[in-house]
Amino acid sequence: MTPKIQRFLEQRRPESPFLVVDLDVVTENYVKLRRALPRAEVYYAVKANPALPVLETLVGLGSHFDAASAWEVDQSLEAGGDPARISFGNTIKKRRDIAHAYEKGVRLYAFDSIEELHKLSEEAPGSRVYCRILTTSEGARWPLSRKFGCELEMACDLMKQAADLKLDPHGISFHVGSQQTDPAVWDIAMGRAAMVFSDLRDAGIELRMLNLGGGFPARYRGDDLPPIESFADTIMQSATRYFGNHMPEMIIEPGRSIAAEAGVIGTEIVLISKKNYDDDVRWVYFDVGKFGGLAETMDEAIRYPVATPYDGSDEGPVIIAGPTCDGADILYEKNPYTLPLKLKTGDRVELLSAGAYTSVYASQRFNGFAPMAEFYI
Ligand SMILES: *Cc1c(COP(=O)(O)O)cnc(C)c1O
Among residues 304, 268, 303, 367, which one has the least CA distance to residue 17? Predict the structure, then answer.
């Protein structure tokens, strides 16, 4: 937790649950990534945290934006973003949302199917388009499965058809899965992308852009992560190996690695209980859970570090759950979390690395609980 957030918590003591984001950390993370990978332009994945102060901070730093919907396009523009610096990166778009983005000046679009390509040729004529390819997301804590992307042969065909449809066949993209801890998967994906580049070059189409996606990890509980430089080194070595003198323009779309560590969720302990008199394990109920924004605790995939007022004192095993009446609202049961024995109902605790994929995941009023308040400092 940064001193700025600590001071904010002490002075403001906002009613929980809430998210507080230190914008200086957003800046630091952006600068660190740019410095490690100067050849790659950053397109911040708006979905990770679309709050205006975050986007405005990034506009100030010269960031581009990866938007997934008409609302995210508008939000990026409202923050002062330039439409020429927005990519509509979702491969699944409504016609009217494409038309909306095009009208606002967006000229860069993702696709992975022939039907989407037809939509783009009609609603965003002449735009630059890039095809998303399937790749492995092994090693990712939050994989993206086979929902997005197509096989290489299809990608080649589609890019040729893009040219026939008077679109500008611009590049190839992939995403190695979110919270990806293994740099080697970028190498695999870049090798696959390079095959599409070279097949298309043989067909007379010179692609110009390689989109390396997001996936760069943030620090959560128990993580031993390679530094960002190892990801950058792997990427640059692979770029040289696979593209040599035909190095394309490269872009990255970090979401989590920009926003996660900038945020802290404040929560209050609603209840501590046991199921049996001689149980060792305490059930600890927070006032925020799966439906209040902690959706990424699904399958206990993302493990937030928990800070308490008694850190350093004796701890015992706990099961951590949210406040709703839904049986699925358990955060950590299989993963061995421990919390101080002194912890009591009414105490305030903080979930760290919580600035990405939290506020936006909160349900409207499930069980009557309002979405958490948000503070950007
Ligand atoms: C979600 C997403 C990102 C961001 O991924 P992170 O793992 O948060 O960096 C980037 N690009 C696309 C297309 C995405 O869907």
Answer: 268
